[in-house]
Amino acid sequence: MVLTVVVHAADIQDRYGARLVVGNAHGKRSHVRLLWVDGGNAGQVVEWAQHVGGWTLDSSKRPNGASRFHVVPRRWVVERTVAWRGTYHRLRKDDGARTDTSEALMDASIDSRDGETFGPHPCQRLFIKFSDTLLAESRMKTNKKKSVAIVQSNYIPWKGYFDLIRAADEFILFDDMQYTRRDWRNRNKIKTQSGLMWLTIPVETKGKFYQSIKDTRISDAYWMKRHWESIVHNYARARYFREYRAFFEELYLNCNEHFLSQINYRFLTAICDILKINTKISWSMDYHLVDGKTERLVELCRQAGATEYLSGPSARGYIDESLFEAAGITLRYVDYSGYPEYDQLYPPFEHHVSIIDMIFNVGPDALKYMLDL
Asked: Which of 14, 36, 216, 360 is most buried per CB count within 10 Å?
């Protein structure tokens, strides 16, 4: 029985490919404790697998001093398994244009061949029919690219956050991550006559040192009224405030969500509507997560079908770029420099304030003051 399948480009070295296999199996095969690997996958992969899934890796090597062909038992099982799958018609005809298509066809062949081994499978014909359709669709979409960005949800964030959303085909809110205090998750800045002012959503933190963003609850049911009063007081004289007042008033005063993630999502999607941003916004909770900072990002991208990952410049310090290269995913750091100034209340000009500042000051011209990342 085949537990998991990963198909990758031929130019990826085995030691990186092994990480993709182990990462793909993590969480799906929790009962597995021992993995046999080819001798070439020993070394760092062994330690990495122990860290990710608590697994023990045992390498299958040729006998010492062997100079001729020898059957290495565990490796032979894998090689023959792949060969047996090759008798499945679609695997022989697969043109290898897309790795996810090849994986789907391998899955279909598994159901087909295992049905012959363990008895007729009632869905056998369905799997074969599905794989035929999938292959046809993949050939039409071979050249289609997909950019993905993965960021924690923020409260009414600055314009750069929305430019990142706009640049991506899918924007994944990474709210499985740990909530961090005094960060952008539950607060942001606005301009006032006296200088910058923080608008902060009060949340429950006492004794919850390791809670995730998605599990962070609001601690004050009237926060939205105070925030709205502050916005009205400081932006009533802005050129386009009257035009957007009813929209934001409803957004604030009818906000009944009890969790920070849901509040952030409410405001993010509403502001995207104003800016005419149609990017798909999803949750990390929609996907299967693996351990490891970079490994988790790569796996989210792989599951989302990404060909390119868009990252903020601050991530250069911790991202392992080789893992993206091994997965065949282009890694691109966005550049937030070069924003033009607009007619802003209360000089001097400040770029790093909430997006609502630009909306109230320039209204429908907001996109003219944003960047194509």
From this structure: 360
Burial of 168 (0-12, 13-18, 19+ CB in 10 A): buried
Report how far residue 363's alpha carbon sits from residue 368's, in angstroms, rounded to the nearest whole number. Answer: 10
Question: Could you identify the residue written with the tokens 């990952």?
Answer: 309
d(CA 338, CA 342): 13
CA 181, CA 197: separation in Å to the nearest integer? 17
d(CA 87, CA 373): 47
Torsion angle, CA of 297/108/12/76, rounded to 10 degrees?
Answer: 130
Report the pLDDT value the prediction gives residue 209, as an integer from 0 to 100: 87
d(CA 123, CA 258): 43
Hey, what are 351's tokens? 């770029």
The token duo for 118 is 């363990």
Pair of tokens at residue 313: 């410049």
Question: Tokens 């990186």 map to which residue?
Answer: 16
Residue 72 has a CB neighbour count (10 Å cut-off) of: 19
Q: 122 preceded by cis ω (within 30°)?
A: no
Pairwise CA distance, residues 320 & 323, whole Å: 6
> How far is residue 103's CA from residue 169's CA, in Å, rounded to a whole number?
23
Is the N-terminal amide bond of 340 cis, ω within 30° of 0?
Answer: no
Give the C-alpha separation, 220 to 359, whole Å: 27
Cα distance between residue 292 and residue 279, in whole Å: 27
Two tokens, residue 247: 């929209």
Distance CA 314, CA 19 (A): 25
| Per-residue model confidence (pLDDT) at position 366 | 97
Q: Token pair of 279, please? A: 């990017």
Of 303, 309, 304, 305, give the one whose Cα is nearest residue 325: 309
pLDDT-derived band at 138, boundaries 50, 70, 90: very low
